[in-house]
Design a protein that fits this description.
alpha/beta; FAD/NAD(P)-binding domain; 7-stranded mixed sheet; 5-stranded parallel sheet; binds flavin-adenine dinucleotide; binds NADPH dihydro-nicotinamide-adenine-dinucleotide phosphate; GSHR/TRXR-like
Length: 537
Protein backbone atom coordinates (compact mmCIF):
# COMPACT_ATOMS: atom_id res chain seq x y z
CA UNK A 1 0.00 0.00 0.00
CA UNK A 2 1.34 3.42 -0.89
CA UNK A 3 1.53 6.06 1.77
CA UNK A 4 2.03 9.80 1.72
CA UNK A 5 3.82 9.62 5.03
CA UNK A 6 7.56 10.16 4.77
CA UNK A 7 9.56 7.05 5.57
CA UNK A 8 11.69 7.10 8.70
CA UNK A 9 14.77 8.28 6.82
CA UNK A 10 12.95 11.15 5.13
CA UNK A 11 11.23 12.10 8.36
CA UNK A 12 14.59 12.30 10.08
CA UNK A 13 15.97 14.53 7.35
CA UNK A 14 12.94 16.81 7.68
CA UNK A 15 13.43 17.06 11.42
CA UNK A 16 17.10 17.85 10.96
CA UNK A 17 16.32 20.51 8.36
CA UNK A 18 13.74 22.11 10.64
CA UNK A 19 16.28 22.60 13.38
CA UNK A 20 19.22 23.23 11.12
CA UNK A 21 21.24 20.24 12.24
CA UNK A 22 24.14 19.94 9.88
CA UNK A 23 26.26 18.11 12.41
CA UNK A 24 26.97 18.57 16.07
CA UNK A 25 25.21 21.54 17.58
CA UNK A 26 27.47 24.52 18.12
CA UNK A 27 26.35 28.09 17.89
CA UNK A 28 22.61 27.63 18.42
CA UNK A 29 20.56 30.82 18.72
CA UNK A 30 19.87 31.95 22.24
CA UNK A 31 16.23 31.12 22.93
CA UNK A 32 13.84 32.53 25.45
CA UNK A 33 10.26 31.40 25.69
CA UNK A 34 8.62 33.54 28.27
CA UNK A 35 5.36 35.41 28.35
CA UNK A 36 6.90 38.60 26.97
CA UNK A 37 8.70 36.86 24.14
CA UNK A 38 6.64 33.86 23.09
CA UNK A 39 8.30 33.70 19.70
CA UNK A 40 11.79 33.03 21.03
CA UNK A 41 14.81 34.62 19.38
CA UNK A 42 17.23 36.93 21.15
CA UNK A 43 15.78 36.96 24.62
CA UNK A 44 14.23 39.82 26.49
CA UNK A 45 14.11 38.84 30.11
CA UNK A 46 10.80 39.95 31.67
CA UNK A 47 10.61 42.48 34.47
CA UNK A 48 10.15 40.53 37.69
CA UNK A 49 9.61 41.43 41.31
CA UNK A 50 12.63 39.37 42.30
CA UNK A 51 15.93 41.20 41.96
CA UNK A 52 17.12 38.27 39.83
CA UNK A 53 16.28 37.39 36.24
CA UNK A 54 15.58 33.73 37.03
CA UNK A 55 14.43 31.56 39.93
CA UNK A 56 16.82 28.83 38.82
CA UNK A 57 19.82 28.77 36.51
CA UNK A 58 21.11 25.30 35.65
CA UNK A 59 24.68 24.94 34.37
CA UNK A 60 24.93 21.76 32.33
CA UNK A 61 22.35 20.17 30.02
CA UNK A 62 23.05 16.52 30.75
CA UNK A 63 21.05 13.88 32.63
CA UNK A 64 20.96 15.75 35.95
CA UNK A 65 20.68 19.33 34.68
CA UNK A 66 17.88 18.66 32.20
CA UNK A 67 15.89 16.68 34.73
CA UNK A 68 16.16 19.43 37.35
CA UNK A 69 15.37 22.25 34.90
CA UNK A 70 12.32 20.49 33.47
CA UNK A 71 10.88 19.58 36.87
CA UNK A 72 11.45 23.12 38.21
CA UNK A 73 9.73 24.64 35.18
CA UNK A 74 6.82 22.22 35.58
CA UNK A 75 6.46 23.49 39.14
CA UNK A 76 6.19 27.07 37.85
CA UNK A 77 9.76 28.32 38.35
CA UNK A 78 11.37 30.69 35.87
CA UNK A 79 14.28 28.58 34.64
CA UNK A 80 17.33 29.04 32.41
CA UNK A 81 19.83 26.37 31.35
CA UNK A 82 23.28 26.73 29.82
CA UNK A 83 24.96 23.84 28.07
CA UNK A 84 28.17 23.99 26.10
CA UNK A 85 30.52 21.25 24.87
CA UNK A 86 34.13 22.24 24.21
CA UNK A 87 35.57 20.00 21.45
CA UNK A 88 37.95 17.13 22.20
CA UNK A 89 41.62 17.40 21.11
CA UNK A 90 40.67 15.79 17.78
CA UNK A 91 37.68 18.13 17.37
CA UNK A 92 34.67 16.00 18.35
CA UNK A 93 31.71 17.87 19.79
CA UNK A 94 27.98 17.17 20.18
CA UNK A 95 24.51 18.49 20.96
CA UNK A 96 22.24 18.98 23.96
CA UNK A 97 21.78 16.07 26.37
CA UNK A 98 25.18 15.60 28.02
CA UNK A 99 27.37 12.53 28.32
CA UNK A 100 24.75 9.78 28.53
CA UNK A 101 22.96 10.67 25.32
CA UNK A 102 25.90 11.74 23.18
CA UNK A 103 29.05 9.93 24.30
CA UNK A 104 27.98 7.55 27.07
CA UNK A 105 25.21 5.10 27.89
CA UNK A 106 23.17 5.44 24.69
CA UNK A 107 25.80 5.01 21.94
CA UNK A 108 27.66 2.52 24.17
CA UNK A 109 24.60 0.30 24.60
CA UNK A 110 23.77 0.49 20.87
CA UNK A 111 27.31 -0.58 19.97
CA UNK A 112 27.31 -3.27 22.67
CA UNK A 113 24.08 -4.58 21.09
CA UNK A 114 25.77 -4.58 17.66
CA UNK A 115 28.67 -6.54 19.16
CA UNK A 116 26.43 -9.09 20.89
CA UNK A 117 24.67 -9.65 17.56
CA UNK A 118 28.05 -10.52 16.05
CA UNK A 119 28.90 -12.81 18.94
CA UNK A 120 25.67 -14.74 18.35
CA UNK A 121 26.38 -15.55 14.68
CA UNK A 122 27.56 -19.05 15.54
CA UNK A 123 24.44 -19.65 17.63
CA UNK A 124 22.28 -18.33 14.80
CA UNK A 125 23.77 -20.86 12.40
CA UNK A 126 23.09 -23.69 14.86
CA UNK A 127 19.51 -22.38 15.12
CA UNK A 128 19.25 -23.09 11.42
CA UNK A 129 19.86 -19.65 9.93
CA UNK A 130 22.09 -20.29 6.95
CA UNK A 131 24.37 -17.29 7.44
CA UNK A 132 27.59 -17.13 5.45
CA UNK A 133 30.77 -17.34 7.51
CA UNK A 134 33.14 -14.38 8.00
CA UNK A 135 30.35 -11.80 7.64
CA UNK A 136 32.11 -8.41 7.65
CA UNK A 137 30.93 -5.58 9.89
CA UNK A 138 30.22 -2.14 8.41
CA UNK A 139 31.40 0.29 11.11
CA UNK A 140 30.43 3.40 9.16
CA UNK A 141 26.83 2.25 8.77
CA UNK A 142 26.51 1.43 12.48
CA UNK A 143 27.95 4.84 13.46
CA UNK A 144 25.63 6.65 11.06
CA UNK A 145 22.60 4.94 12.62
CA UNK A 146 23.80 5.57 16.17
CA UNK A 147 24.39 9.25 15.39
CA UNK A 148 20.99 9.55 13.70
CA UNK A 149 19.34 8.33 16.88
CA UNK A 150 21.41 10.73 18.99
CA UNK A 151 20.36 13.69 16.85
CA UNK A 152 16.71 12.78 17.38
CA UNK A 153 17.35 12.78 21.14
CA UNK A 154 19.21 16.15 20.93
CA UNK A 155 16.25 17.63 19.10
CA UNK A 156 13.81 16.09 21.59
CA UNK A 157 15.56 17.86 24.48
CA UNK A 158 15.43 21.19 22.61
CA UNK A 159 11.69 20.73 22.09
CA UNK A 160 11.18 19.89 25.78
CA UNK A 161 12.96 23.10 26.79
CA UNK A 162 10.77 25.10 24.42
CA UNK A 163 7.58 23.38 25.68
CA UNK A 164 8.49 24.13 29.27
CA UNK A 165 9.49 27.74 28.51
CA UNK A 166 13.02 27.21 29.74
CA UNK A 167 15.50 29.78 28.44
CA UNK A 168 18.34 27.91 26.75
CA UNK A 169 21.83 29.31 26.33
CA UNK A 170 24.24 27.34 24.15
CA UNK A 171 27.05 29.13 25.98
CA UNK A 172 29.77 28.38 28.48
CA UNK A 173 28.81 29.59 31.98
CA UNK A 174 31.09 30.64 34.83
CA UNK A 175 30.35 32.34 38.14
CA UNK A 176 30.90 36.07 38.61
CA UNK A 177 29.45 35.96 42.13
CA UNK A 178 26.96 33.72 43.96
CA UNK A 179 23.98 35.17 42.05
CA UNK A 180 25.56 35.91 38.66
CA UNK A 181 27.05 33.86 35.83
CA UNK A 182 28.93 35.16 32.81
CA UNK A 183 28.19 33.52 29.46
CA UNK A 184 30.86 33.10 26.80
CA UNK A 185 30.49 31.86 23.21
CA UNK A 186 32.55 29.20 21.45
CA UNK A 187 35.25 31.69 20.51
CA UNK A 188 35.60 32.62 24.19
CA UNK A 189 33.94 36.02 23.63
CA UNK A 190 31.90 37.41 26.53
CA UNK A 191 28.18 37.41 25.70
CA UNK A 192 26.42 38.67 28.82
CA UNK A 193 25.89 38.27 32.56
CA UNK A 194 22.73 36.57 33.86
CA UNK A 195 21.43 36.62 37.44
CA UNK A 196 19.42 34.01 39.33
CA UNK A 197 18.08 33.32 42.82
CA UNK A 198 19.36 29.71 42.75
CA UNK A 199 21.92 27.78 40.74
CA UNK A 200 22.33 24.08 40.06
CA UNK A 201 25.75 22.97 38.86
CA UNK A 202 25.54 19.74 36.82
CA UNK A 203 28.57 20.10 34.58
CA UNK A 204 29.69 16.46 34.69
CA UNK A 205 33.09 15.03 33.80
CA UNK A 206 35.34 14.65 30.74
CA UNK A 207 37.94 11.95 30.02
CA UNK A 208 41.44 12.28 31.47
CA UNK A 209 44.50 12.06 29.19
CA UNK A 210 46.65 11.39 32.24
CA UNK A 211 49.19 14.10 31.31
CA UNK A 212 51.19 11.58 29.26
CA UNK A 213 53.37 13.09 26.51
CA UNK A 214 51.68 12.60 23.14
CA UNK A 215 48.37 11.37 24.61
CA UNK A 216 46.19 14.16 23.23
CA UNK A 217 47.80 13.93 19.78
CA UNK A 218 47.83 10.13 19.47
CA UNK A 219 44.93 8.72 21.52
CA UNK A 220 41.16 8.96 21.41
CA UNK A 221 38.62 8.58 24.23
CA UNK A 222 34.95 7.71 24.68
CA UNK A 223 34.20 11.33 23.73
CA UNK A 224 35.39 10.49 20.19
CA UNK A 225 34.76 6.78 19.69
CA UNK A 226 31.00 6.76 19.07
CA UNK A 227 31.13 9.22 16.15
CA UNK A 228 34.39 8.13 14.49
CA UNK A 229 33.91 7.33 10.80
CA UNK A 230 36.44 4.49 11.07
CA UNK A 231 38.70 2.91 13.67
CA UNK A 232 41.96 1.22 12.77
CA UNK A 233 42.48 -2.42 13.69
CA UNK A 234 44.80 -3.54 16.51
CA UNK A 235 43.53 -1.30 19.29
CA UNK A 236 45.10 -0.82 22.71
CA UNK A 237 42.51 0.05 25.38
CA UNK A 238 44.15 1.57 28.46
CA UNK A 239 42.21 1.30 31.75
CA UNK A 240 40.37 -1.58 33.38
CA UNK A 241 37.10 -0.16 34.61
CA UNK A 242 33.58 0.15 33.12
CA UNK A 243 34.45 2.30 30.11
CA UNK A 244 37.59 0.51 28.96
CA UNK A 245 36.18 -3.01 29.37
CA UNK A 246 32.82 -2.20 27.79
CA UNK A 247 34.37 -0.49 24.77
CA UNK A 248 37.10 -3.15 24.44
CA UNK A 249 34.33 -5.76 24.47
CA UNK A 250 32.27 -4.35 21.64
CA UNK A 251 35.32 -3.36 19.56
CA UNK A 252 36.45 -7.01 19.73
CA UNK A 253 32.97 -8.29 18.90
CA UNK A 254 32.88 -5.94 15.89
CA UNK A 255 36.00 -7.58 14.51
CA UNK A 256 38.95 -5.61 15.92
CA UNK A 257 42.02 -7.08 17.62
CA UNK A 258 41.96 -5.67 21.11
CA UNK A 259 44.59 -5.49 23.86
CA UNK A 260 43.73 -4.13 27.31
CA UNK A 261 46.34 -2.46 29.53
CA UNK A 262 45.54 -2.96 33.22
CA UNK A 263 47.32 -0.94 35.92
CA UNK A 264 46.15 -3.00 38.90
CA UNK A 265 42.82 -4.87 39.03
CA UNK A 266 39.73 -5.13 36.87
CA UNK A 267 36.64 -3.17 37.87
CA UNK A 268 37.83 -1.63 41.14
CA UNK A 269 34.97 -1.46 43.66
CA UNK A 270 33.05 -4.37 42.14
CA UNK A 271 32.96 -7.93 43.47
CA UNK A 272 36.43 -9.15 42.53
CA UNK A 273 35.46 -12.79 42.01
CA UNK A 274 32.98 -11.64 39.35
CA UNK A 275 35.48 -9.13 37.88
CA UNK A 276 37.99 -11.95 37.40
CA UNK A 277 35.37 -14.10 35.68
CA UNK A 278 34.71 -11.23 33.26
CA UNK A 279 38.44 -10.99 32.55
CA UNK A 280 38.68 -14.74 31.88
CA UNK A 281 35.63 -14.63 29.63
CA UNK A 282 37.10 -11.76 27.60
CA UNK A 283 40.45 -13.54 27.38
CA UNK A 284 38.59 -16.66 26.22
CA UNK A 285 37.09 -14.62 23.39
CA UNK A 286 40.58 -13.62 22.25
CA UNK A 287 41.27 -10.28 23.93
CA UNK A 288 44.79 -9.85 25.31
CA UNK A 289 45.48 -8.37 28.74
CA UNK A 290 48.75 -6.61 29.67
CA UNK A 291 48.67 -6.60 33.46
CA UNK A 292 50.57 -4.44 35.94
CA UNK A 293 51.32 -1.88 33.24
CA UNK A 294 51.09 1.90 32.82
CA UNK A 295 51.87 4.05 29.77
CA UNK A 296 54.89 6.37 29.66
CA UNK A 297 54.39 8.21 26.37
CA UNK A 298 52.84 8.02 22.91
CA UNK A 299 54.07 9.05 19.46
CA UNK A 300 52.87 8.59 15.87
CA UNK A 301 54.71 6.31 13.44
CA UNK A 302 55.19 7.34 9.82
CA UNK A 303 52.24 5.20 8.72
CA UNK A 304 49.88 6.79 11.27
CA UNK A 305 50.05 4.04 13.90
CA UNK A 306 50.80 4.72 17.55
CA UNK A 307 54.06 3.86 19.28
CA UNK A 308 53.36 3.15 22.93
CA UNK A 309 56.11 3.21 25.52
CA UNK A 310 54.99 1.64 28.77
CA UNK A 311 56.24 0.16 31.98
CA UNK A 312 55.25 -3.32 33.11
CA UNK A 313 56.30 -4.53 36.52
CA UNK A 314 59.30 -2.20 36.53
CA UNK A 315 60.41 -3.03 32.97
CA UNK A 316 60.20 -0.50 30.11
CA UNK A 317 58.65 -1.78 26.86
CA UNK A 318 57.55 -0.51 23.43
CA UNK A 319 54.71 -1.73 21.17
CA UNK A 320 53.06 -0.36 18.04
CA UNK A 321 49.24 -0.30 17.87
CA UNK A 322 46.84 0.76 15.14
CA UNK A 323 45.00 3.01 17.59
CA UNK A 324 44.97 3.74 21.33
CA UNK A 325 41.78 4.20 23.33
CA UNK A 326 42.29 5.92 26.70
CA UNK A 327 39.80 5.23 29.52
CA UNK A 328 41.82 6.06 32.61
CA UNK A 329 39.24 8.02 34.57
CA UNK A 330 37.32 11.26 34.19
CA UNK A 331 37.94 14.81 35.37
CA UNK A 332 35.32 16.98 37.10
CA UNK A 333 34.63 20.15 35.09
CA UNK A 334 34.66 22.51 38.05
CA UNK A 335 37.62 24.67 37.05
CA UNK A 336 35.69 26.22 34.15
CA UNK A 337 32.78 27.41 36.31
CA UNK A 338 35.17 29.53 38.44
CA UNK A 339 33.84 28.23 41.76
CA UNK A 340 36.12 30.59 43.70
CA UNK A 341 34.12 33.62 42.47
CA UNK A 342 31.01 32.29 44.23
CA UNK A 343 32.79 30.74 47.21
CA UNK A 344 31.94 27.12 46.29
CA UNK A 345 34.12 24.62 48.17
CA UNK A 346 35.72 21.94 46.00
CA UNK A 347 37.23 18.66 47.18
CA UNK A 348 40.91 19.06 46.19
CA UNK A 349 41.29 15.26 45.91
CA UNK A 350 38.96 14.90 42.91
CA UNK A 351 37.87 18.48 42.03
CA UNK A 352 34.24 17.62 42.74
CA UNK A 353 31.78 19.93 44.50
CA UNK A 354 31.24 19.17 48.17
CA UNK A 355 27.50 18.92 48.90
CA UNK A 356 25.29 18.02 51.84
CA UNK A 357 22.62 15.30 51.67
CA UNK A 358 20.22 17.84 50.11
CA UNK A 359 22.73 18.61 47.32
CA UNK A 360 23.53 22.06 48.70
CA UNK A 361 27.10 23.30 48.22
CA UNK A 362 28.96 25.48 50.70
CA UNK A 363 27.00 28.43 49.21
CA UNK A 364 23.34 28.33 50.34
CA UNK A 365 21.74 29.16 46.95
CA UNK A 366 24.07 26.95 44.87
CA UNK A 367 23.40 23.21 44.50
CA UNK A 368 25.15 20.43 42.63
CA UNK A 369 23.94 17.11 41.25
CA UNK A 370 25.18 14.25 39.08
CA UNK A 371 28.73 13.20 38.32
CA UNK A 372 30.31 16.46 39.47
CA UNK A 373 28.96 16.14 43.05
CA UNK A 374 31.36 14.61 45.50
CA UNK A 375 30.42 11.15 46.79
CA UNK A 376 27.61 10.45 44.31
CA UNK A 377 27.47 7.51 41.87
CA UNK A 378 28.54 8.41 38.34
CA UNK A 379 25.38 7.01 36.78
CA UNK A 380 22.59 8.53 34.68
CA UNK A 381 19.53 7.31 36.60
CA UNK A 382 20.84 8.64 39.93
CA UNK A 383 21.64 12.04 38.31
CA UNK A 384 18.11 12.17 36.84
CA UNK A 385 16.42 11.28 40.12
CA UNK A 386 18.62 13.68 42.11
CA UNK A 387 17.72 16.51 39.68
CA UNK A 388 14.01 15.87 39.91
CA UNK A 389 14.02 15.56 43.74
CA UNK A 390 16.06 18.76 44.06
CA UNK A 391 13.60 20.74 41.92
CA UNK A 392 10.70 19.39 44.02
CA UNK A 393 12.46 20.48 47.22
CA UNK A 394 13.23 23.94 45.81
CA UNK A 395 9.86 24.69 44.20
CA UNK A 396 7.40 21.99 45.26
CA UNK A 397 7.62 21.97 49.06
CA UNK A 398 9.09 18.44 49.10
CA UNK A 399 11.54 17.26 51.76
CA UNK A 400 12.41 14.06 49.93
CA UNK A 401 16.15 13.41 49.54
CA UNK A 402 17.92 10.82 47.41
CA UNK A 403 18.70 7.43 48.91
CA UNK A 404 21.98 6.24 47.45
CA UNK A 405 21.84 2.82 49.15
CA UNK A 406 21.37 -0.12 46.78
CA UNK A 407 21.74 1.77 43.51
CA UNK A 408 21.91 -1.03 40.92
CA UNK A 409 24.23 -0.94 37.92
CA UNK A 410 25.25 -3.08 34.97
CA UNK A 411 28.59 -3.39 33.24
CA UNK A 412 27.91 -4.07 29.55
CA UNK A 413 30.93 -6.27 28.84
CA UNK A 414 30.48 -9.15 26.31
CA UNK A 415 29.22 -11.16 29.26
CA UNK A 416 27.11 -8.64 31.19
CA UNK A 417 27.41 -8.06 34.91
CA UNK A 418 24.57 -6.59 36.94
CA UNK A 419 24.85 -5.92 40.65
CA UNK A 420 23.12 -4.21 43.51
CA UNK A 421 24.45 -3.63 47.02
CA UNK A 422 27.75 -4.82 48.46
CA UNK A 423 30.49 -6.95 47.00
CA UNK A 424 31.40 -10.07 48.98
CA UNK A 425 34.65 -8.47 50.19
CA UNK A 426 32.97 -5.20 51.23
CA UNK A 427 30.24 -7.08 53.13
CA UNK A 428 32.87 -9.07 55.02
CA UNK A 429 34.84 -5.89 55.74
CA UNK A 430 31.72 -4.22 57.22
CA UNK A 431 29.99 -7.11 59.01
CA UNK A 432 32.75 -9.67 59.59
CA UNK A 433 33.20 -13.04 57.90
CA UNK A 434 31.16 -14.92 60.52
CA UNK A 435 28.10 -12.70 59.93
CA UNK A 436 28.03 -12.89 56.14
CA UNK A 437 26.58 -15.86 54.26
CA UNK A 438 27.36 -16.08 50.56
CA UNK A 439 25.28 -18.27 48.22
CA UNK A 440 26.40 -18.91 44.67
CA UNK A 441 25.65 -20.80 41.49
CA UNK A 442 27.37 -21.33 38.14
CA UNK A 443 24.93 -22.04 35.36
CA UNK A 444 24.49 -22.22 31.60
CA UNK A 445 21.60 -20.33 29.98
CA UNK A 446 19.28 -22.70 28.11
CA UNK A 447 19.80 -20.77 24.85
CA UNK A 448 23.56 -21.33 25.00
CA UNK A 449 23.06 -25.04 24.37
CA UNK A 450 22.69 -24.60 20.60
CA UNK A 451 26.41 -23.97 20.25
CA UNK A 452 28.48 -26.78 21.69
CA UNK A 453 31.57 -24.60 21.99
CA UNK A 454 29.78 -22.12 24.25
CA UNK A 455 30.92 -22.67 27.78
CA UNK A 456 28.52 -22.38 30.67
CA UNK A 457 30.93 -21.90 33.50
CA UNK A 458 30.96 -18.10 33.32
CA UNK A 459 27.30 -17.41 34.05
CA UNK A 460 27.15 -16.86 37.73
CA UNK A 461 24.83 -15.70 40.48
CA UNK A 462 25.90 -14.63 43.94
CA UNK A 463 23.75 -13.61 46.88
CA UNK A 464 25.40 -11.94 49.88
CA UNK A 465 23.33 -11.94 53.07
CA UNK A 466 23.69 -10.47 56.56
CA UNK A 467 23.07 -13.15 59.18
CA UNK A 468 22.62 -10.48 61.86
CA UNK A 469 19.50 -9.23 60.06
CA UNK A 470 17.56 -12.40 59.29
CA UNK A 471 19.71 -13.05 56.22
CA UNK A 472 18.77 -9.76 54.59
CA UNK A 473 20.17 -9.63 51.05
CA UNK A 474 22.90 -6.97 51.09
CA UNK A 475 24.52 -7.85 47.76
CA UNK A 476 23.17 -9.40 44.58
CA UNK A 477 25.45 -10.22 41.65
CA UNK A 478 24.53 -11.70 38.28
CA UNK A 479 26.85 -12.48 35.40
CA UNK A 480 25.06 -13.51 32.24
CA UNK A 481 22.83 -12.39 29.39
CA UNK A 482 20.56 -9.36 29.83
CA UNK A 483 22.01 -8.47 33.21
CA UNK A 484 20.38 -5.03 33.39
CA UNK A 485 16.93 -6.46 32.69
CA UNK A 486 17.45 -9.28 35.20
CA UNK A 487 18.68 -7.05 38.03
CA UNK A 488 16.21 -4.15 37.89
CA UNK A 489 13.34 -5.96 39.64
CA UNK A 490 15.62 -7.57 42.22
CA UNK A 491 16.90 -4.08 43.07
CA UNK A 492 13.32 -3.01 43.84
CA UNK A 493 12.98 -6.06 46.09
CA UNK A 494 16.19 -5.11 47.91
CA UNK A 495 14.74 -1.63 48.51
CA UNK A 496 11.85 -3.43 50.24
CA UNK A 497 14.22 -5.38 52.52
CA UNK A 498 14.54 -8.65 50.57
CA UNK A 499 15.71 -11.61 52.66
CA UNK A 500 17.07 -14.96 51.51
CA UNK A 501 13.87 -16.59 52.79
CA UNK A 502 11.71 -14.34 50.58
CA UNK A 503 13.98 -15.05 47.64
CA UNK A 504 13.55 -18.79 48.27
CA UNK A 505 9.77 -18.36 48.39
CA UNK A 506 9.75 -16.39 45.12
CA UNK A 507 8.47 -18.51 42.26
CA UNK A 508 10.85 -18.43 39.29
CA UNK A 509 9.93 -17.71 35.70
CA UNK A 510 10.91 -20.76 33.70
CA UNK A 511 13.08 -21.16 31.70
CA UNK A 512 15.04 -17.97 32.33
CA UNK A 513 18.40 -16.95 33.76
CA UNK A 514 16.68 -14.65 36.26
CA UNK A 515 15.01 -17.61 37.96
CA UNK A 516 18.46 -18.89 38.86
CA UNK A 517 18.71 -16.16 41.49
CA UNK A 518 15.60 -17.56 43.21
CA UNK A 519 17.07 -21.07 43.40
CA UNK A 520 20.59 -20.65 44.72
CA UNK A 521 21.09 -22.89 47.75
CA UNK A 522 24.83 -23.61 47.81
CA UNK A 523 26.71 -21.58 50.41
CA UNK A 524 30.36 -20.82 49.79
CA UNK A 525 31.05 -21.93 53.35
CA UNK A 526 29.77 -25.45 52.56
CA UNK A 527 32.50 -25.99 49.97
CA UNK A 528 29.95 -27.74 47.72
CA UNK A 529 30.30 -27.11 44.00
CA UNK A 530 28.47 -24.07 42.64
CA UNK A 531 28.31 -25.60 39.17
CA UNK A 532 24.81 -26.58 38.11
CA UNK A 533 24.62 -29.91 36.34
CA UNK A 534 21.81 -30.81 34.00
CA UNK A 535 19.05 -28.35 33.55
CA UNK A 536 16.69 -26.24 35.47
CA UNK A 537 14.29 -28.67 37.01
P1 LIG B 1 26.70 15.21 31.95
O1 LIG B 1 25.71 14.32 31.30
O2 LIG B 1 28.12 14.97 31.66
O3 LIG B 1 26.30 16.71 31.50
C1 LIG B 1 27.07 17.84 31.80
C2 LIG B 1 26.90 18.88 30.69
O4 LIG B 1 27.38 20.15 31.14
C3 LIG B 1 27.72 18.55 29.45
O5 LIG B 1 26.95 18.72 28.28
C4 LIG B 1 28.87 19.55 29.51
O6 LIG B 1 29.43 19.85 28.25
C5 LIG B 1 28.14 20.76 30.10
N1 LIG B 1 29.04 21.75 30.71
C6 LIG B 1 30.17 21.53 31.41
N2 LIG B 1 30.68 22.70 31.85
C7 LIG B 1 29.84 23.68 31.42
C8 LIG B 1 29.81 25.09 31.58
N3 LIG B 1 30.73 25.72 32.32
N4 LIG B 1 28.82 25.79 30.97
C9 LIG B 1 27.86 25.16 30.25
N5 LIG B 1 27.83 23.83 30.09
C10 LIG B 1 28.80 23.09 30.68
N6 LIG B 1 25.73 5.62 33.22
C11 LIG B 1 24.75 4.70 33.33
O7 LIG B 1 23.89 4.83 34.21
N7 LIG B 1 24.67 3.63 32.48
C12 LIG B 1 25.57 3.44 31.49
O8 LIG B 1 25.47 2.47 30.73
C13 LIG B 1 26.60 4.39 31.34
N8 LIG B 1 27.50 4.26 30.35
C14 LIG B 1 28.47 5.21 30.19
C15 LIG B 1 29.38 5.05 29.15
C16 LIG B 1 30.37 5.98 28.96
C17 LIG B 1 31.34 5.82 27.83
C18 LIG B 1 30.45 7.12 29.82
C19 LIG B 1 31.50 8.18 29.60
C20 LIG B 1 29.55 7.29 30.86
C21 LIG B 1 28.55 6.33 31.06
N9 LIG B 1 27.64 6.43 32.09
C22 LIG B 1 26.65 5.49 32.24
C23 LIG B 1 27.68 7.56 33.04
C24 LIG B 1 26.65 8.65 32.67
O9 LIG B 1 26.80 9.02 31.32
C25 LIG B 1 26.84 9.87 33.56
O10 LIG B 1 26.75 9.44 34.90
C26 LIG B 1 25.78 10.95 33.34
O11 LIG B 1 25.75 11.38 32.00
C27 LIG B 1 26.06 12.14 34.25
O12 LIG B 1 25.13 13.18 34.03
P2 LIG B 1 25.44 14.67 34.52
O13 LIG B 1 24.17 15.44 34.32
O14 LIG B 1 26.05 14.66 35.86
O15 LIG B 1 26.56 15.22 33.54
P1 LIG C 1 37.19 4.76 36.60
O1 LIG C 1 37.73 5.93 37.29
O2 LIG C 1 36.15 3.93 37.24
O3 LIG C 1 38.40 3.78 36.16
C1 LIG C 1 39.58 4.23 35.62
C2 LIG C 1 40.41 3.03 35.19
O4 LIG C 1 41.63 3.51 34.62
C3 LIG C 1 40.81 2.13 36.35
O5 LIG C 1 40.92 0.81 35.86
C4 LIG C 1 42.18 2.67 36.74
O6 LIG C 1 43.03 1.71 37.35
C5 LIG C 1 42.73 3.04 35.39
N1 LIG C 1 43.73 4.09 35.44
C6 LIG C 1 43.62 5.28 36.06
N2 LIG C 1 44.72 6.01 35.85
C7 LIG C 1 45.54 5.26 35.08
C8 LIG C 1 46.81 5.46 34.53
N3 LIG C 1 47.45 6.60 34.74
N4 LIG C 1 47.37 4.49 33.77
C9 LIG C 1 46.70 3.34 33.56
N5 LIG C 1 45.49 3.08 34.06
C10 LIG C 1 44.90 4.04 34.81
O7 LIG C 1 36.66 5.35 35.25
P2 LIG C 1 35.80 4.92 34.05
O8 LIG C 1 36.27 5.97 33.14
O9 LIG C 1 35.91 3.53 33.58
O10 LIG C 1 34.28 5.14 34.51
C11 LIG C 1 33.83 6.34 35.13
C12 LIG C 1 32.45 6.17 35.68
O11 LIG C 1 31.49 6.24 34.60
C13 LIG C 1 32.19 4.83 36.35
O12 LIG C 1 32.57 4.86 37.71
C14 LIG C 1 30.70 4.66 36.19
O13 LIG C 1 30.00 5.19 37.29
C15 LIG C 1 30.36 5.45 34.93
N6 LIG C 1 30.08 4.46 33.86
C16 LIG C 1 28.98 3.65 33.99
C17 LIG C 1 28.73 2.66 33.07
C18 LIG C 1 27.56 1.77 33.24
O14 LIG C 1 26.70 2.04 34.05
N7 LIG C 1 27.50 0.66 32.50
C19 LIG C 1 29.61 2.47 31.90
C20 LIG C 1 30.74 3.37 31.87
C21 LIG C 1 30.94 4.32 32.83
P3 LIG C 1 43.12 1.49 38.95
O15 LIG C 1 42.03 0.54 39.31
O16 LIG C 1 44.49 0.94 39.13
O17 LIG C 1 42.95 2.84 39.59
Amino acid sequence: MESNQPDQGEEMEMVMDMVGFGGPEEEAPVMSFNMLDPGGGEEEVPVRKSPYQFDLFVIGGGSGGLSCAKEAATLGAKVALADFVPPTPIGTTWGLGGTCVNVGCIPKKLMHFAGIFGDYQGDQRECGWELPTNVPHNWERMVANVQKHIQVLNWGYRVQLIDKEITYFNHYASFVDSHTVALHDKTGKFVKNVTSENFVVAVGLRPSYGGYPGAEECCFTSDDLFSMKSVRDNILCIGASYISLECAGFLHSLGKHVTIMVRSILLRGFDQEVAEKIGSFMEGLGMVFIKGAVPIQFSKTEDGKVRVEYEQNGEQKVEIYGAVFLAIGRIALTKGIKPENAGIVINPRNNKIIVDEADRSSVPNIFSIGDVSDGRPELTPSAIQAGSYLAKRLFGGSTHIMDYVNVPTTVFTPIEYGCCGLSEEKAIEIYGDENVEVYHSMFKPLEWNYLESREGKYCYGKIVTNKLENEKVIGLHYLGPNAGEVLQGFAAAMKCGLTKEILDQTVGIHPTCAEELTKIDVTKRSGRTAAKTGCWG
